[in-house]
């Protein structure tokens, strides 16, 4: 069995559209690994609105 090197948290945040139209978010986590979520376009817009409400300008 091959040993896999854990991914660090210095990788990029990635978003792509899959063949069904879902947006796939890949977010690096501290300590290695990635959080992966599939969201609709409306859910992505809701996330943008929620983040914009708390981001200091």
For this structure, the CATH topology is Double Stranded RNA Binding Domain
* Computed CA radius of gyration, to the nearest angstrom: 14 Å
Order of helices and strands: EEEH
Domains (count): 1
User: Biggest sheet, in brief?
Assistant: 3 strands, antiparallel
Low-confidence stretches: none
Provide the spatial order of strands within the biggest beta sheet. Answer: 1-2-3
Q: Regarding CATH, which class?
A: Alpha Beta
Which bin fits the share of residues in helices? 10-25%
Helical segment count: 1
Estimate the strand proportion.
25-35%
Looking at the overall shape, the CATH architecture is: 2-Layer Sandwich
- How far is the N terminus from the C terminus? 49 Å
Coarse structural class: alpha+beta
Q: Any idea what the shape is? A: flat
> Total strand count, please?
3
Put the structure in a nutshell.
This protein is α+β, with helices and mostly antiparallel strands and 57 residues long. It has one helix spanning 41-54; strands at residues 14-17, 23-28, 34-39.
Summarize the structure in words.
The chain has 57 residues and is an alpha+beta fold. It has a single domain, classed as Double Stranded RNA Binding Domain (2-Layer Sandwich), CATH 3.30.160. The chain has a three-stranded antiparallel beta sheet with strand order 1-2-3. A hairpin with a 5-residue loop joins β1 and β2. The model has no long low-confidence stretch (mean pLDDT 86).
